[in-house]
Structure formats: C-alpha cells, structure tokens
Design goal:
7-stranded mixed β-sheet; alpha/beta; 269 residues; 7 strands; 39% helix
Length: 269
C-alpha cells in the first residue's frame, strides 16, 4: 500500500488502533464500504494539500473526500490520533531519540474561517475569529503534546493542560516518563503562580525575563519549538482553520504531530 501520502510504516501503526467496523447486513447489504487505507489516504491528502473534502481526487486516493471526512470523524471520536502519538513517542524513547530532560513550550495563532468551538476574536488579527495551537516539544523539537484554544486565550493558561496531556511514554525499563525535568518558555509565561506550579510538579522553570530579548541564554533551547511550528505548518490544512468542529481540527493537528515523530524515527535508521 506504500505511496506518497500513506507509507507502509504509517499504516502499520494506525491499523491496530482503528475501531472495528459495524457488521454488514446480510439482506440488502448495499455497496461495499471504502477500505480504511484509502480513507486514510484521503485524510492525509487534505492535511497536506488543503483541498476541500469534495475535491479529494478519488482516482488517486481510492476514496471520495466525503467518505474520508466521515472516517476522520469516526476515528477522532474513537481517540485514534492521541493513541497513535503515544505509540510513536514510546518507539522514540525505546530508540533513545526522545530527550525529555529539556522541553520547550509556545503557541501559534491561526485564523479560523468558520465559527465553532475554540474560535474567538484574535487580538493579533484585528479581532477576526481565530484559534491557537499550543505546543510542547522535547529538546530535539519532537512534539510531546498539543492543544487547541480560542485565539484570545493567553498562552500561559495552557501550560498545565499541555503538561497533563503528555502521554506516558514507555519503551524502557522502569516507570513511564511523562514529565520534563526543565521547561523553557518565552516571557509570556513569566508568572510566579505558574513557576510555583511547575516546581510543585518537579519541573524546573526556565523562563526568559521580560525586557531582555537577548542575552538570557535560553534562546538556544527555546528555538526548537518555533522550528516544530514551521514543520506543522508545512501541512497546509493547519495554516488556517477550516473545520467547524474543534475536535476534527485537533485530530488533524495530532496526526501531523505523529507524522513528524515518524519522520524522526526514519532518519535514525
């Protein structure tokens, strides 16, 4: 099944996580449903090319865009994408490619073309509707967790929610890892309340001071999260939010994070 959009190694990891299909009726069963690999090709095609679901080329993907959207909906509701991300993070840790001693956090604004949950007037885009991607990465820029909020939410409000959704990564003997030792952030996170929260969790805060854009020494570790945002926005569907349903946009965001993790695994071989 290997192709430009869904290589074999991606499908092999997703297939065991998919929910079982409902049994077909014996009488009047109707047309055969499109197979799951074809539906996944349609989803990844939209994620990378940013075409409308109706414009997905069925002759190339083997599935209509409407069917691909329905599978995205079903698989998102079944929790496939966070479990896929957890599987890949554990593989990275087993291979010695996950360095959670240092982590960096940041957020990025995206315009939302349609109304829906987590779309709010953005203070950086003339109060147009927007959303925010909040991201935490390891020392190498590997995405550990991502959340979605309205465009007017302050970055620091997602500090603890991001830490809470970092999956417990297995792969080595001992307890699974799900907390960084040090957290690097820009001056937008410099609040004493959140410093205390981080220390209570056993995390050393490394937050740049306000009014000191250079010379803090933290930029050499913090820049990796900006690079990961650039990787994410290579998936054209994530540059602007088109989905009304917030869970579907977040699902595409989580799938993109998993593809980035898979790329890091490939380059290690």
């Amino acid at each position: 099944m290997s192709d430009d959009f869904v290589p074999d190694d991606l499908w092999e990891r997703i297939a065991p996580l998919l929910p079982p299909r409902p049994a077909r009726r014996h009488r009047y069963p109707g047309r055969l449903p499109a197979d799951d690999p074809a539906a996944l090709r349609g989803i990844v095609y939209v994620l990378r090319k940013n075409v409308s679901w109706r414009d997905v080329p069925a002759e190339r993907t083997g599935c209509s865009g409407v069917t691909s959207w329905r599978r995205l909906r079903d698989w998102t509701e079944a929790g496939v994408w966070p479990r896929l991300h957890e599987v890949l993070l554990s593989e990275l840790r087993r291979a010695g490619l996950l360095d959670m001693d240092d982590a960096a956090i940041d957020a990025s604004h995206v315009r939302a073309l349609k109304r829906g949950a987590h779309t709010e007037p953005s203070p950086v885009d003339r109060a147009r509707p927007g959303s925010k991607h909040h991201l935490i990465v390891d020392r190498h820029g590997t995405p550990l967790a991502v959340t979605l909020t309205g465009g007017n939410r302050h970055d620091v409000t997602q500090l603890t929610p991001l830490l809470d959704v970092i999956p417990r990564t297995h792969g080595l003997r001992g307890r699974p890892r799900h907390r960084p030792a040090r957290l690097f952030a820009d001056p937008g996170y410099v609040y004493d309340k959140y410093r205390r929260i981080l220390r209570a969790l056993g995390i050393t805060p490394k937050i740049a001071r306000r009014g000191v854009p250079h010379g803090s020494g933290l930029g050499k570790t913090r820049w990796v999260v900006e690079r990961t945002f650039a990787w994410l926005h290579q998936f054209k569907r994530l540059r602007i939010r088109y989905e009304i349903r917030a869970d579907l946009h977040l699902g595409l965001l989580q799938l993109a994070c998993s593809i980035i993790c898979l790329r890091r695994l490939r380059t290690s071989f």
